[in-house]
Structure formats: C-alpha cells, structure tokens
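JOB MANIFEST
job_type = single_chain_structure
chain_count = 1
residues = 178
[input]
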Amino acid sequence: MAVKKRSSAGVKAKTVSVYLYADEIQERRPVLLFTAGQIDEVLTKAEIQAVPFASEYLLGLCAWREQVLPIMDLVRFFGLSSSGKDEGARYLVVRTVDTLSPGSAENIHSEKVLQRCVLKVSDQIINGDIPADCEVIYPKQAGFAPVFVRGLFRREKELFILPDIAAIIHSNSLGGAE
C-alpha cells in the first residue's frame, strides 16, 4: 500500500506535541499531537484515586476544578513499551467533543457533549504549527487500532499520533473494537 504525502500548503493550525515515554515505533519517537484548543491545562502533579478492577491504562480518578476526571496512560493504552523514563511526568487536561445520538436510528438529531480526561505524559510538551513534511500512514501499519486514532503521520525521527480521545474514553464499552 502506497504512503500518501500530506499536503498542508497554506494550512496553519496551532498544535501541541507531547513526546511519549515509550520505545520507538518503526525507528521513530512516538509523539501525541493535539490542537491547541484541546488542551485545558498542564499539571505538574495530580492526586490520583485508584479505581479497583480498572484497566491497566486507567491510572485512577482526580479532582480538577470541581470535576472528577479519569487519568489515563496512553503508553499503556496503545500497548507500547515504556522507555523507563518516568521522572518529570506531567498531566495534560484534554477536552474533546463527543457526538451522542439519543433514541432510535430514526432520530437524526445528535447532541454534542464536551468531555475531558487527564493524560499522563512526558515533560516534553511543545507548542507549534503542524509539521509540513509528514507522510500519512494507516494505523494498522504501526500496530494501532484505527478506532482509537484519528490520524498517524511520520517524519524522519517522529511518529505523530492523533488520538481519538472520545473513543479512548469509551473504550471499555467498545469490547475490543478495531
């Protein structure tokens, strides 16, 4: 399958790149990529309340601005090998809009719901523009389930992962969807 070149001529979207504490994928360093509007806050620490019988990637719950949010580790979620570097970890409060369709299939109206979660990430967080010299690759080529990835782009030294936060939040109810 041919790799598509991503054309971003004239496109300027502010992004936030977060390097993961994970081993390389296809000889590239894994990097989470978000739009700047998805990031509510970067926390240097979080008080985590463990949740019994939770999935390995769900570290627990924390209080943030009078809300209870799940704290997730995407290195574990995606089944990546940890690089062992965990000191200096940060916690990223991320938001997403989930579209819920109430009622039956005949109901064409959908409701948009704002959801938040906290991601355990590295301290290497970079604001900037979308890299222009990336190639699009398909999630399965890098071992990712397509339902959890909105996009996957590679450069010479990085593999940029656009996670589908809404799908990840709902993953326990998906029953292993691919």
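[summary]
Residues 165-169 form the longest helix (5 residues).
The longest strand covers residues 90-100.
exit_status = 0
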